[in-house]
Amino acid sequence: MTAEQVRRAVEAVTDPELRRPIGELDMVREVTVRGSTAHVAIVLTIVGCPAANRIESDVRSAAASVPGVDDVDVSVGVMTPDERKALTEKLRAGRPARQMPFGPDSLTRVILVSSGKGGVGKSTLTANLAVALAERGLAVGLVDADVHGFSIPGLLGIPAGTQPTRIDDLMLPPVAHGVKTISIGMFLRDGESVVAWRGPMLHRTVQQFLTDVFFGDLDVLLIDMPPGTGDIAISIGQILPHAEVLVVTTPQTAASDVAIRSGLVARQTGQRVIGVVENMAAFALPDGTVIDLFGSGGGAEVAKALSTPAEPIALLASIPLSPALREGGDAGMPVVLEDPSDAAAAAIDALAQRVVTKGRGLAGRSLPFAPA
Length: 372
Ligand code: ADP
Prior knowledge:
2 domains, eight-stranded mixed β-sheet, three-stranded mixed β-sheet, 21% strand, globular, disordered C terminus, binds adenosine-5'-diphosphate
């Protein structure tokens, strides 16, 4: 057994937050071997880095897995400011700091999940959709911009009070069930409420955290929007005019007017409605009795009203009422993972597939090719 073998094993350990091998992140400082004992020195980004224990134990097992190693001694240090600076530069991959990475040239699909009113299950759906997309191997980010509740962290089991990890001016989102997750609620000072923020302040804040949070290269960024057509919807519409929009409604036809309006407002800012999702639809009891608490037809009605001759809008999914979906939300364990056979989970998974295959039209977009 050689130090080189141990180094190779250790360098392959991934940093759970940065999602890259620690070798690539220059975190392995020294590897030596004496007899059958491997000594490994690693450096982390900051003191008390939340991922420290995990990295240390992964490094220990990686070193121990090398044949001939009986004992592993791991020492954990902290990067110098210069090392940290080199790391943040490497992570930005040449992108200048303070530039919003989700502009029209980005290859990330930005999908806003909107509804006309609250309580239709928009956040529950968004959390599960994000996890279902991540399960398909996509790099997924999720922004909780629903200032009326900030329920996304809870739905994904992120403990209350969790903050993004800061490496100097880079903020790393917590990762839950494979989804990089940020809530505007994580940026509030004690006792502060976003609802009290007004137009320009709100706009600046949204712009700032879309800029300063380091999501890395994402395939999809989902944004859980506040219900309705208020300041945040308009700000996000201005900051992300190329975003796609999923409109969520219940099957109740009386609820469809507000859902239609949220779709129309999104379209006015230039965003593209890609489909309608109906939630809390009828479900069948084991004896075959069908319970349709909220009636039926609302989703189809919204899709029809948002359709134009040039672009028909589809009802992409109808998600039944499901105790397992609600319980999974309460427990922070999304039903798409916990009980994929549940009818709501299966419907959300099918929705994820449709969203992936729908793709984003390339028409009218300038591709980020530099001339050779
Ligand atoms: P919104 O984000 O639209 O305000 P939430 O996602 O917070 O709505 O959902 C409101 C409540 O409804 C939550 O308790 C959630 O667990 C429950 N819920 C959402 N969708 C369903 C469903 N399909 N079946 C059963 N309960 C649901």
